[in-house]
């Protein structure tokens, strides 16, 4: 009689486990659907309601398993060990899903969201979840950089922390691209307020609330390049760099503070990454005036049939037009940030460039070829105010970023310029 009861209990327990297994699989599928429909609030609500109903049924099945196998004093050995391990593992996985709070749609905040790199990043993040831009729009045309985006909100910088405090638990990551980026800006107090104070306050907020932070540093932190362009993040290596202007110094100050905190075991965001962008070119830079990339300025000359106007070299060892930069396609910069979003364990300070210096003559020829115009050049003296600190060479070292696992090849100068000209600048609507 006891053996029969044991057999029946085992059969009933196995049936309850099988029902629990089926419910666990359905629950997992619904969770996937919930995440897939994160941007559709009605679909997400329906998925959550179905998930709740299945959770109740799963709890019942778990109870049935407990009553039939454990409640009757049946040893765990009474169930086939292989079947039991498989079922219980999958039940536990489903149970963990039940007791965790329902996940809300992902939210990404991009400061400087109406700017050049920030607006390109928002375009890439939009399919991933809710996007929030923090920026001032002013009186220029930068609002057009946001015109194609379905923003969850547009927050003035002075209201950023009030917004973040009200969105606690919703924000997955903050991408801090906002700054005064004009290298000739003379109001250093304004630079400190915008580039230093806001950045350090964001570091502290993200650390307190355990929100991931990816922020824009700059190749301007390397100064004249006398100490190279190695993205060594150690406090000692950073201390050797000498930026040439207040903008570069402000970015460097933030890099050094974070490096100090990291070296001393201070509290930082769960992911904290600084990106030293080199000479970026691409769509949505049109509002930048004289700070636009040389690629864009050359396009206007090529389209008009005018010669390319390039700075003459004032160094005997560098030919005219031989001044070189690490020109990097904006899409490559965005790809790095998307990869970092998918790899939250990666933190640090990294160069973002093509990893290969190219001359301004190379750039000009690429632009004229993409436009389909014959190349001509007209030399002009480098303006006296910037001649003393003019950089003749920049080139990012990218080994540290590659060592983290980022494997996407850099876009060649010719391919990037061709895409910029043909997919954007030559179109009636050049915005991304």
Structure description:
With 432 residues, the chain is of the alpha/beta class. Helices cover 47% and strands 13% of the residues. It has helices spanning 2-36, 41-70, 81-99, 116-125, 160-166, 188-209, 235-239, 246-263, 294-303, 330-342, 360-371, 384-387, 399-403, 413-425, and strands at 107-111, 130-134, 153-155, 171-176, 212-218, 272-277, 279-281, 308-311, 324-325, 327-329, 348-352, 358-359, 377-380. The strands form four sheets. Strands 3-2-1-4-5-6-11 form a seven-stranded parallel sheet, with helices on both faces. It has a two-stranded parallel ribbon with strand order 7-10. Strand 4 (171-176), helix 6 and strand 5 form a beta-alpha-beta unit. Helix 1 (2-36) crosses helix 3, helix 6 (188-209) packs parallel to helix 8 and helix 11 (360-371) crosses helix 14 (413-425). It is globular. Mean pLDDT is 86; it is low at 32-40, 69-80 and 97-102.
Structural class: alpha/beta
Strand order of the largest sheet: 3-2-1-4-5-6-11
Provide the β-strand percentage band: 5-15%
Order of helices and strands: HHHEHEEHEHEHHEEHEEEHEEHEHHH
Poorly predicted ranges:
32-40, 69-80, 97-102
Using DSSP, what is the number of strands? 13
The chain-level mean pLDDT equals: 86
Number of helices: 14
Distance between the termini: 76 Å
Which short descriptors sum up this protein?
single chain, 432 residues, alpha/beta, 7-stranded parallel β-sheet, two-stranded parallel ribbon, 14 helices, 47% helix, 13% strand, globular
List strands and helices in order, with pairings.
Layout: H1 2-36, H2 41-70, H3 81-99, E1 107-111, H4 116-125, E2 130-134, E3 153-155, H5 160-166, E4 171-176, H6 188-209, E5 212-218, H7 235-239, H8 246-263, E6 272-277, E7 279-281, H9 294-303, E8 308-311, E9 324-325, E10 327-329, H10 330-342, E11 348-352, E12 358-359, H11 360-371, E13 377-380, H12 384-387, H13 399-403, H14 413-425
Parallel strand pairs: 1-2, 1-4, 2-3, 4-5, 5-6, 6-11, 7-10, 8-13
Antiparallel strand pairs: 9-12
């Amino acid at each position: 009689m006891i053996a029969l009861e044991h057999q029946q209990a085992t059969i009933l327990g196995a049936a309850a486990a099988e029902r629990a297994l089926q419910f666990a699989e359905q629950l997992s599928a619904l969770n996937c659907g919930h995440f897939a429909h994160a941007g559709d609030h009605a679909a997400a609500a329906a998925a959550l309601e179905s998930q709740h109903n299945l959770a109740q049924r799963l709890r019942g099945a778990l109870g049935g398993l407990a009553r039939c196998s454990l409640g009757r004093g049946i040893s765990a050995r009474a169930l086939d060990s292989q079947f039991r391990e498989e079922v219980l593992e999958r039940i536990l996985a489903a149970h963990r899903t039940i007791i965790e709070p329902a996940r809300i749609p992902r939210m990404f905040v991009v400061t400087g969201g109406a700017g050049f790199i920030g607006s390109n990043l928002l375009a890439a993040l939009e399919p991933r979840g809710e996007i929030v831009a923090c920026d001032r729009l002013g009186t220029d045309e930068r609002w057009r950089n946001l015109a194609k985006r379905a923003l969850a909100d547009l927050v003035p910088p002075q209201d950023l922390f009030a917004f973040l405090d009200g969105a606690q638990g919703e924000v997955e990551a903050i991408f801090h691209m906002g700054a005064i980026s004009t290298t000739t800006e003379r109001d250093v107090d304004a630079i400190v307020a915008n580039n230093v104070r806001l950045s350090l306050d964001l570091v502290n907020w993200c650390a307190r609330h355990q929100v991931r932070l990816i922020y824009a540093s700059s190749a301007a932190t390397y100064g004249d390049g006398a100490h190279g362009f190695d993205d060594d993040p150690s406090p000692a290596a950073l201390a050797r760099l000498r930026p040439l202007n207040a903008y570069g110094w402000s970015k460097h100050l933030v890099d050094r503070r974070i490096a100090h905190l990291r070296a001393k075991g201070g509290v930082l965001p769960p992911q904290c990454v600084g990106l030293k962008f080199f000479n970026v070119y691409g769509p949505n830079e049109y509002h930048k005036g004289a700070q636009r990339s040389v690629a864009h300025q050359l396009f206007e000359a090529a389209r008009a049939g005018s010669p390319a106007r390039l700075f003459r070299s004032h160094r005997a060892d560098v030919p005219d037009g031989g001044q070189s930069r690490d020109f990097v396609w904006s899409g490559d910069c965005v790809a790095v940030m998307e990869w970092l979003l998918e790899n939250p364990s990666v933190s640090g300070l990294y160069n973002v460039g093509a990893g290969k210096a190219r001359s301004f003559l190379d750039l000009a020829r690429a632009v004229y070829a993409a436009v389909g115009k014959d190349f001509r050049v007209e030399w002009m003296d480098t303006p006296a105010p910037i001649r003393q600190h003019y950089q003749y060479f920049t080139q990012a070292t990218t080994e540290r970023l590659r060592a983290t696992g980022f494997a996407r090849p850099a876009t060649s100068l010719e391919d990037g310029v061709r895409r910029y000209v043909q997919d954007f600048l030559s179109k009636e609507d050049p915005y991304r």
